[in-house]
Design goal:
With 187 residues, the chain is an alpha+beta fold. Among the domains are: 44 residues, no CATH class; 35 residues. Helices cover 17% and strands 6% of the residues. It has 4 helices and 4 strands. The strands form 2 sheets. It has a two-stranded antiparallel sheet. The chain has a two-stranded antiparallel sheet with strand order 3-4. A hairpin with a 6-residue loop joins strand 3 and strand 4. The longest helix is centred in the first third of the chain and has 11 residues. The N and C termini lie far apart (105 Å).
Length: 187
């Protein structure tokens, strides 16, 4: 007689009985796992009225769920959060900021991609694009433009380095207050 590589059970109770009978140390205890779904009241994203959800991912009340012409019918979580951001605490400085993306953890002061601070006023929907910071050369300390993320030196210190940032030329103060120097400043 050939032995089957696996055994098929007709019900879950038979499987549990088989496991309990084959468990010599009697360590197996069949326990059904309970999921604690917390159905707190939510605010409908269409009519903005509070409702009790039937599922954790429900975003609309029963009236608005049946509407076919919903404004945000198939909008993703990111688009909904950009329209109506949540207020969160910054992980860096502990200040309140508008969290417009689920993965955002910092304010605009602590990160280039951070959210707008609540203290600045009402939320303005702006695409957060990274603002490249001008790094300082590790050789001479001058600021330069990076063309690659790993670039650490300027053209002066390395042939493959980045171009130097031109500093604005400040006019020197002189005690000479002649008409020609004043006219040059006005121009």
């Amino acid at each position: 007689m050939t032995q089957k590589p696996y055994q098929v059970f007709s019900s879950m109770k038979e499987l549990e009985k088989f496991i309990i009978d084959s468990d010599e140390l009697k360590e197996f205890k069949p326990v059904k796992r309970e999921i604690n779904w917390n159905f707190d009241a939510k605010i409908c994203e269409e009519c903005e009225e509070p409702f009790k959800p039937n599922h954790i991912a429900q975003h609309f009340c029963e009236k608005c769920q049946k509407k076919s012409d919903k404004q945000n019918k198939r909008e993703s979580v990111v688009h909904r959060m950009k329209r109506k951001p949540h207020i969160a605490k910054c992980s860096g400085c502990n200040k309140d900021y508008y969290r417009s993306v689920p993965t955002m953890h910092y304010c605009e002061k602590c990160s280039t991609r951070g959210g707008q601070l609540v203290s600045r006023g009402k939320y303005i929907n702006v695409d957060n694009k990274t603002v490249p910071k001008t790094p300082e050369c590790r050789g001479c300390g001058k600021k330069f433009h990076r063309t690659a993320p790993a670039m650490r030196y300027c053209k002066c210190c390395s042939p493959k380095g980045g171009e130097l940032v031109e500093e604005p030329i400040l006019l020197k103060k002189t005690n000479n207050t002649s008409k020609s120097s004043v006219l040059n400043l006005v121009k």
